[in-house]
Sequence to fold (312 residues):
Amino acid sequence: MDFESYRGELVAFCYRMLGSFSEAEDLVQETLLRAWKARDRYDPARASVRTWLYRIATNVCLTALDGRERRPLPSGLGAPSEDPGAPLTPALDVPWLEPFPDARYDVEARADLRLAWVAAVQLLPARQRAVLVLREVLAFSAAEVAEQLGTTVAAVNSALQRARAAVAGAGDAADVPEPGDPEVRAVVERYMRAFEAADVPALVRLLAEDAVMEMPPVPLWYRGRDHYGLFMERVFRMRGTGWVVRPLTANGQPALAAYAPEPGGGHQPHSLQVFTVTADRVTHNIVFTDPRVLDAFDLPRHIPGDEFRRER
Fold:
């Protein structure tokens, strides 16, 4: 039985359920181990291998979520900060939402991996979360989901209706341009050039009027061009200029890895920045600075001298 070919989509499923890429990989490993041990009891007359694996993965995720707090972004915890000079104190006790490294797995559908959608899904009770992902993203039938969850079709349909209403505020991910869209690429390219030049006015010109910046694990977040610009001026004062960046994608969104200059020369990874670009403007930038998040993207830990070269 070929279980390995399902690993990528199962990781994406567990990520949508838990909001953590590292935990998703662990839970998929547990899922495949359980499937291997139970392979003699698999009945192809009752379900396909894929459906059977998702039943195991769903149960593994529901067990993992039992008693857990949701994984938020800073904007899900309170009002925006009005002080661009506020202390940048990380809240290490918060289980922050993590980004999904696109390059690690070949996942066919990425629209519902977008950070805003995954953050909204975290607000749902675990079983509603499972129903929404299994029905809306993975297109299992109501009968299949009922079998996977050990419930009725009527209960599945009711849970789906409530889940849809709860995440409606996250917007329609299908309307968000893809990273490969020429206009999106052009905006991100201009942003990268301005960032490397420490040109704050140029960065601000690329922002929507109500652009949002948030920085987990720091619980602060900012709304609006003015605060965004003032904060970026602070960053360049604190860490200096001469940054370099590498373009990539995360959660099906354009992203960049930012490398800060080191006093002795070379650069070290500082942050992963994930963008939402709408109508030729950056509307949202989520800046992840947790080293464990950066490790998931297999980024070099140090780049000596002039060896860094961006691939465009």
Notes: The CA atoms of residues 200 and 232 lie 7 Å apart. The first strand starts at residue 207 and ends at 215.
